[in-house]
Amino acid sequence: MTSSPQFEIQARGLVKRFGNFTAVRDVTLEIPKGIIFGFLGPNGSGKSTTVKMLTGLLQPSAGEITVAGMPPDPADPNSRRAIGVLPEGNALFHSLTLMEHLRLSGPLYGLTEEQTESRAQQLLTALDLWDVRDTYSDQASYGMAKKCSLAMALLHNPRVLFLDEPFEGIDPASGRGIKDLLGLLAARGVTIFLTSHILEIAQQLVQSFAIIREGQIVCRKDMADVAQEGRTLEDYYFEHVGRPEIGEWDWLG
Amino acid sequence: MAELLKWQWLAYWRRILRGGTSVKGNLLVMGLLAVPALARYGTFLRDVRKQTAEGNTSLLEILLAALLLLCLQPGWDAAGLAIGTRDMARFPLSAPHRFGLRVLSRFVSPISWAFVAFIAGGIWPVLALRHPLHSAAAYLFLMAAGFAAGLAVSDLSQTAKAALPIRLAWLALAVGAGLWWAWTRTFPPLPSHLVILAGAGQWWAILFAVILAGIAAYCARCALPWMLKHSPRKGRSRPARSARRMSLLSRELRLQSKLAEVRKNWLISSALGLYLVVADRPEPDALRVMLGVLAFLSIAVAMNSFGFDGVPGLDRFLLMPLKSIRIFLAKNRAFAIAVCGPTLPLAILAAWRFGWREGTADLLEGCALCFAMLAWGNITSVLRPENAGSSAGGNVIDQFLAIIIIGITTAGAIGALRATPQAAPFYLSTLVVVFAALYAGSLWWSAGYFGRQYERIRQALS
User: Fold this and answer.
1) Chain B: nearest CA to A243, how far in angstroms?
2) How far apart are CA A163 and CA A190, in angstroms?
3) Long-range CB contacts (< 8 A, 24+ apart) of B132-135?
4) Which of A54-68, B287-301, B418-432 has the highest mean pLDDT?
5) What tens digit of pLDDT does each residue of A122-147 get?
6) ipTM of the complex model
7) Across B80-84, B91-95, B196-200, B417-421, which has the greatest mean pLDDT?
8) Best of B247, B251, B316, B446 to disrupt the A interface by mutation (most A CBs within 10 Å)?
9) Section B6-10 average pLDDT
10) Cys-Cys with A137: which of A92, A176, B66, B101 at CB 3.0–4.6 Å?
């Protein structure tokens, strides 16, 4: 498959099966450079599975992917250097402190010791982790671990960022900082692919979005079109995903 | 309560059935080993009974002490309950119901059934004492006391506050028993002796056993709510100081240094070193056999090298710009340093005590074993990985095959030194070269398999 240079993330006909269960069906995405793309959907709809395929953590059962012009192959270090990933579950080593995660990552991505130290200090300070940098990752709170994983994703200045639920478990001040940071990165040409359950944040942050339900993309829109129609991202979300009905249960309350 | 116990039972077996080939394999092997073990135990009980009937209670004394320790030891819980006591605390149960559930939960696993069988069998030789009813009553109360004390210790050990004092108490007891033996050359006095006293007609021994059981039951009853009120024990409580430099190798070394197998290896190597230094006439073959034993004790670390990382660690490895062979090399080097490193001084000590030829032979045997363990470990690490905690675990069938490899290497080393001492270094060097070549092949194959099949490995670890 030849990738179009204007698209940083391209996926065609992505399918992922686990035995008889099909988690993702025929997902096609084309995401241009320098935008923040929101990938939304309810629990179990296939968001994280899609992110795992786009980042090479899972192999698609069918379909083709290119990210930054390369297939996401874990065996190819160049494809790894081009992307930064905040994966589901944060993927931290339990025997290392938050600071040590960055000190381990830097040299692997070709940074010098000085570069690693200076970037790590900037990132940990910006994410309000500097004072707790010596905490082991398995003793850190969920939000702290998430921010550490985000710092690892940013440390080597990737071309494409994949963020799986970056605002989940994050305090409001840090959340605001992350939002500003992502806006700055996109303005500098970094492509950001994020999943989120927090529709208010997605509404403010993304320039384009897709809604996935039961493994299939059911809606794909640019925020400019949404604004022109006088609607919100939330309107589209509930239109395609629906709301669970809460009956009048006389036993509750 | 019956409903919760039913769910506990279902959750336990579901965990076993969904636990992959290793868990099932381990259970199968344990089941197969239990049959000859129980048969051998039956023969031993017959001998103890015969000796007791003849008026000699020395073997019975040892048996009773062992059974009392069996009641106390935490293996009842180590069988791994699917729903822990702390999880059970969320249900609105009264204190007696919660305690009852805690007691009955100890009998969910087949390991506890084997323990019960061993303890029940112990009553047979006890009945051969002069006053069988007295001794049986004392035996039952004493075992109940042991069980209740074990329950209390197990609960208290789960809290951050009591874990260290309990460990220190165990250590003090072990040291005290050792010193008692060293000074008196007799068995230290244990509560199990009450059974023999009761069998001799001392009625107060029964009373004492009843009091012990009552105190232990009361302690167990109090320990449970105390445990639920206090924070659980964690691996590390003090804040760390991040290392100035961190590499894949240093990460692996830190990980391995915390493993139970590696710590045991250091302890045994130190003891062997002490033996070589202080013994009047140390036996050269003993060291060679012990190298094989050390290899067997630590093989699980090499055999499940991704088990300690779990899915998060594996994902991180995959996201980093690394060729998989670099991951294996880092893990293998850490194993060679952390696990095989402590045995290196033994070769130097052997050379000092037995001459350079013996020392060289031991060194070569150690190298051959290290390459053999790494070769086998790389293959099983990708073929049958499983989640591991503070110890490596590993598949019993794979470990059995590892014993064969280690056994052949060790026997080969001993045989070569006995048959042709002059040529032994040459034979052993050849063995090292062969295992090094096998290791290189395993590294190449495992790294390739990891690249192709990481999704399967990820699935096995999740």
Assistant:
1) 30
2) 13
3) B132/B199, B134/B198, B134/B199, B134/B201, B134/B202, B134/B203, B134/B205, B134/B206, B135/B195, B135/B196, B135/B198, B135/B199
4) A54-68
5) 999 999 999 999 999 988 999 999 99
6) 0.89
7) B196-200
8) B316
9) 82
10) A92
What amino acid is encoded at A137 in this protein?
S
| Distance in Å, alpha carbon of B41 to nearest chain A alpha carbon | 43
Lookup: tokens for B212: 């012990």
Q: Which of A57, A77, A87 sits opposite B321 (nearest CB)?
A: A77
Between the two ends of chain A, the Cα-to-Cα distance in Å is 58
Beta-carbon separation of B240 and A135 below 8 A? yes
Which residues, at least 6 apart from B92, have a Cβ–Cβ distance to it below 8 Å?
A: none
Q: What letter represents residue B397's amino acid?
A: I
Tell me if B246 and A139 make a contact (CB, 8 A cut-off): no
Does B257 contact A at CB distance below 8 Å?
Answer: no
> B60-74, B412-426, B432-446: which range is least confident on average?
B412-426
Average pLDDT for chain B: 84
Give me the residue from A56, A90, A113 closest to B312, CB to CB. A90
How is residue A167 written in tokens? Answer: 């605002």
Q: Which H helix or E strand runs over B97?
A: helix B95-105
The torsion defined by the Cα of B382, B385, B389 and B391, in degrees rounded to 10, comes to: -80
pLDDT digits (tens, 9 = 90+) for B358-405: 888 888 888 988 999 999 999 999 988 887 765 566 677 787 888 888
pLDDT at B423: 79
User: Hey, is the C-beta of B451 within 8 angstroms of any chain A C-beta?
Assistant: yes
**Contact in structure between A54 and A193 (CB atoms under 8 Å):** yes
Q: Which residue is closest to A82 within chain B, CA to CA?
A: B321
Comparing C-alpha atoms, which of A172, A176, A159 is closest to residue A80?
A: A159
**Min CA distance, A75 vs chain B (Å)?**
6
Distance of CA A129 to the CA centre of its chain: 20
| Residue corresponding to tokens 């990210």 | A67
**Residue B125: other Cβ atoms inside 10 A:** 25
What is the Cα–Cα distance from B152 to B74, expressed in whole angstroms? 10
Contact assessment for residue B206 and residue B198, using Cβ atoms and an 8 Å cutoff: yes
CA distance B283 to B3: 59
Q: Please tell me the least confidently modeled range out of A237-241, B127-131, B178-182, B329-333.
A: B178-182
Beta-carbon separation of B246 and A90 below 8 A: no
